[in-house]
Design goal:
Layout lengths: L28 E3 L6 E3 L5 E3 L3 H7 L6 E3 L2 H6 L2 E4 L8 E4 L6 E4 L3 E4 L3 H8 L7 E4 L1 H4 L3 E2 L11 H7 L3 H6 L25 E6 L3 E2 L4 E9 L4 E8 L2 E7 L3 E7 L8 E10 L4 E10 L9 E5 L3 E2 L3 E9 L5 E8 L2 E7 L4 E8 L6 E10 L4 E3 L3 E5 L6 E5 L4 E2 L5 E8 L4 E7 L5 E6 L4 E5 L6 E11 L4 E10 L1
Parallel strand pairs: 1-4, 3-5, 6-9, 8-10, 12-18, 20-27, 29-35
Antiparallel strand pairs: 1-2, 2-3, 7-8, 11-13, 13-16, 14-15, 14-17, 17-18, 19-21, 21-24, 22-23, 22-25, 25-26, 25-27, 28-30, 30-33, 31-32, 31-34, 34-35
Length: about 475
């Protein structure tokens, strides 16, 4: 994406009027004989639109631009740059993958997950992200992250930004004078410090994760260098920039409960400041909700085969899925969709148990772990059960047909279809598939149905399926 440091109006000649002395009011859009368009602020200064994207968040066209003389324009002092209108677009810096929403006063708030971005800006949220060049990033400040969808409202943020002046006024709020009285107050002088923001792309760390660290600095003097460290290892160093970002791969062994991220900022006037951030080591066994594992039959006889499936939900941009049995990698699936399947013969004495789980790695380097399932060898195996609906979603008022099938070496005694609370909806005798039309469903949301089968000796197994009512 190409940017210019001053927003140039390519079709200025289409609306420019003859330059003449003009009476200006705060909020006017102005230009002279050149193509650049400015905002005339309530302070009597002209503000620059850094690029066309910034302009379009505030205005849909150029019909209200006033043309003044070159001399009049030169007499108006520059007052800084205009920032994006809050709530309209999402932004990111070209050197960092983190996506930000814009709050009042040019405050950037990191949108923590793709799910939150979808909830706030719709399924096509990724088409509403603009890149901000590093040179313009210092116009903004870093605020708190958006950790859930209730933390931020795009429409409310836009509504509050009545004008560019109103939005700029939100950057600073003058302090209330609580010491004013008849006696003059002698002002105190404080030493200016570098204002630093330090963030990480995730709050916990796992082995082999790739985490992006970002540091930004604001100071009256130019910034000479920003350095970022993870556990005293240099991640990156940036010179002559207000924002610095770098990726760091977590080691294969994490033997501490917390790890420190540190940034060191040095200004041209030799002022130095540091800021630290502690990241906790994630549990190595606690499952992540974004990934699941299922086993066709968790109880089998020695020498029998059972299948294992690892599935990732739509929030994970899958790079690789690996299925483990007793901590040994058995199957790897690369870029083959959101699921990976593996089956094998399990043999050994009765009572032998095999533990299986899956690890899913995203394109960005985040690793997700499923829960652990146990496969047990027994004298009598449990039935193999499948449940199918044929559709992943239906509309309100429609019904959904569920079909449960089962097989077992000892024969199938019965097949049942159950609701989400495990209440039996239908029972079928024998091994023939059991079919039930459920609904009509009138409440939007996810629906879970279960299929259960019992073999002739009395062992049972069940599987579930979900569909959405829209």
């Amino acid at each position: 994406m190409k940017y210019k440091y001053l927003f140039v109006l390519a079709a200025a000649c289409l609306f420019a009027t003859q330059a003449q002395a003009a009476t200006l009011s705060p909020g006017d859009l102005i230009k002279a004989s050149g193509p650049a368009v400015y905002y005339y602020s309530q302070e009597g200064k002209r503000l620059v639109f850094p690029n066309e994207n910034t302009y379009k968040t505030w205005y849909t066209d150029f019909s209200t631009v006033k043309t003044i003389t070159d001399a009049e324009l030169a007499a108006i002092t520059m007052g800084g740059n205009v920032t994006y209108k809050p709530g309209v677009r999402l932004v990111k810096i070209v050197s960092d993958s983190k996506v930000y929403a814009i709050a009042a006063g040019g405050v950037l708030r990191h949108v923590a997950t793709e799910e939150i971005a979808r909830n706030l800006y719709g399924a096509d949220w990724n088409t509403k992200v603009d890149d901000i060049p590093v040179g313009f990033f210092s116009n903004y400040s870093i605020g708190s992250s958006i950790l859930n969808s209730t933390d931020y409202s795009p429409s409310a943020s836009t509504a509050q930004a009545v004008s560019i002046d109103t939005d700029r006024a939100a950057k600073t709020t003058p302090p209330v004078c609580t010491t004013c009285g008849s006696e003059p107050v002698t002002p105190t002088t404080t030493q200016e410090t570098i204002q630093i923001a330090l963030s990480a792309s995730q709050n916990t760390i796992k082995i082999n994760d790739v985490i992006t660290f970002t540091a930004s600095a604001q100071y009256s003097a130019s910034i000479k260098e920003i350095r970022i460290y993870f556990d005293n290892n240099l991640v990156t160093a940036c010179q002559n920039a207000n924002v610095c970002s770098g990726d760091f791969a977590m080691p294969s062994v994490l033997d501490k409960e917390t790890y420190q991220v540190k940034t060191e900022v040095t200004a041209l006037d030799t002022t130095k400041e540091t800021k630290t951030l502690d990241l906790a080591r994630a549990s190595t066994t606690e499952p992540d909700s974004e990934v699941t594992i299922s086993v066709d039959r968790e109880v089998i006889e020695p020498g029998q085969t059972t299948g294992i499936t690892v599935q990732a939900d739509e929030t994970v941009d899958v790079k690789e899925i690996i299925i483990y049995v007793d901590d040994v990698a058995k199957k790897g699936c690369n870029y083959l969709g959101r699921s990976c399947k593996w089956s094998q013969i399990f043999d050994g004495p009765l009572g032998t148990e095999f533990n299986t789980y899956g690890l899913v790695t995203s394109v960005s380097g985040v690793t997700y772990r499923t829960q652990t399932k146990t496969i047990t060898l027994a004298a009598n195996s449990i039935p193999y059960v499948t449940i199918e609906t044929g559709k992943t979603y239906i509309l309100k008022g429609e019904s959904m047909e569920a079909v449960v099938s089962a097989s077992d070496e000892d024969g199938i005694q019965s097949i049942e279809i159950l609701d989400s609370q495990k209440n039996v909806l239908k029972t079928c005798s024998g091994a023939a598939p059991c079919t039930l039309s459920t609904g009509p469903w009138v409440t939007e949301g996810m629906v879970t149905l279960w299929g259960r089968a019992t073999d002739v000796p009395g062992s049972s197994n069940e599987q579930s399926i979900q569909f959405e009512v829209r």
